[in-house]
Amino acid sequence: MDERLQVARLSVASNTVLVIGKVAIGWLIGSVSVISEGIHSGLDLMAALIAYFSVREASKPADESHHFGHGKIENVAGTIEALLIFIAALWIIWEAVHKLQVGGAAPEVSWGALIMALSAGVNYFVSSRLMAVAKKTESVALKADAMHLRTDVYTSLGVLVGLLLLKVTGWWLVDPLVAIGVALLIMKASWDLLHQAFLPLLDSRLPEEEEEQIQERIERHAAKYVNVHEVRTRRSGAERHIDMHMVFCKRQSVEETHEISDTVEKEIQELYPKSSVLIHQEPCNERCGECKLGNNRGNR
């Protein structure tokens, strides 16, 4: 089975168990911070399911209806995940503010502390596995899922500290205030994920660092062409799309220019294996003064 699907299933399974545990314990002990973590994990579960199905669909090859493949499904999934998390954060704040207004007794914290510690440990392990596979396969959906779970690690630890403080002081205000802090962290994670997942849907260019690496591969062969212009880049899921216009001396043979183009394409794909490179070959105008003749033809 595809490694991406294996870790996506692991995420679904772990989140299912944690959602049930957090919500049940939070409800029994009357802790809004623990319940908020349960809702957070519920969103993580939904995100894990979206990630699983999006990775499965994105791995399908290009077909008659999708000539450029299905990679953007991962970006759509990541955008949906980010919006769902933001909505959950608003709900947590609403519940916490309501508890601050009406007041309440301090909840029993023992079972809540136990489920928070367990949640932090499990999610740290699963998020590490997800991130490792996401980096290896450059999966946007798995990276989003990993970031969700890593945020859950920190928020679970935050709730754990809040519950321990509550046990020591007996101040019931600690519980809703910690829940609000959790919600704010969730909102920050939501914004980061939305920025990462949504921009590729607008065909935004690759990061500057990646474009510089691509340019370096092109310039390795500068002596064999006149110039390169209109270099365009974009990303679709785990795939990168790069196209450019490469100008050659008009006296170079078609076979020679094709060989040079293939070499440039191969080196870019060695840098980024999941990339599609399109090079449009153009003859130069001798009047430009850059076309060299004789033994040095094609040099700058």
TrEMBL record:
According to the entry, every stretch annotated as the Cation efflux protein cytoplasmic domain falls at 206-284
Protein family per UniProt? Belongs to the cation diffusion facilitator (CDF) transporter (TC 2.A.4) family.
Q: What is this protein called?
A: Cation diffusion facilitator family transporter
Q: Which UniProt keywords apply?
A: Membrane, Transmembrane, Transmembrane helix, Transport
Question: Main subcellular localization, coarse class?
Answer: membrane
**Domain Cation efflux protein transmembrane, which positions?**
10-201
Molecular function GO terms recorded: cadmium ion transmembrane transporter activity; ferrous iron transmembrane transporter activity; zinc efflux antiporter activity
Has UniProt tagged this entry with the keyword Disulfide bond? no
Q: How does it sit in the membrane?
A: Multi-pass membrane protein
A Gene Ontology BP annotation from the UniProt entry: intracellular zinc ion homeostasis
